[in-house]
Amino acid sequence: MSSQERTNTNAALDERQARDWGLQPDEWARYRQLMQGPLGIHSPNLDPLTALGIEARTDEERRHYAELQVQAEARRVEKTLTYQRAYDAAWQRLYPTLQRVDLTGTTLANGGSLPSVRLAVFVKESCPPCEQRVRQLQSEGATFDLYMVGSRQEDARIRQWATRVGIDPDKVRERAITLNHDGGRWLSIGVQGDLPAVVREVNGQWLRL
Length: 209
Hints:
The protein is 53% helix and 12% strand. By secondary structure, it is of the alpha/beta class. A 5-stranded mixed β-sheet has the order 3-2-1-4-5. A hairpin with a 2-residue loop joins β4 and β5 (205-208). The longest helix is centred in the middle third of the chain and has 36 residues, at 59-94. The chain is globular, with a radius of gyration of 20 Å. The protein starts with a helix and ends with a strand. The relative contact order is 0.10.
């Protein structure tokens, strides 16, 4: 493939991805640029709408991306719920007398089991219960994304905390555990209560464990 063909292919891919997120090409280009900077280093898994919303240059931009994200989340939740209903119906049709086994150890109110997904753990400094909870999760072999609330975007603050708590550097290198600045995420997911908080996403909703 020639250099020009690769350029055309990449441009077409960028245009399609931008369209999938409801973004214009220039917005997608800004997202790509942002993820090559400090934001991408601190939070490499941010979706385009969150990244652009966090780095919004005006209140109007912030509202625009918040609305796009709410619309995208609503579509995703509806698709998930539609599939869940089809799955439940298929199970009942194919195995009406067989009880489903909950392999996760956590059961939904309707009897279905939660999908096996990574945990998100929100902590803050000077919080002994936070340290105790993270030590417990690591000893259990859990995989999780840790978010420090109030880190002030200072990498050293998170690293020092992780060292004090005894987080295994190998697990971080293998991304079994990730260390992240909160960047407003704790407020955005709308979970109530004090820190530490261990949450997981189920059908588009964040549930506290």
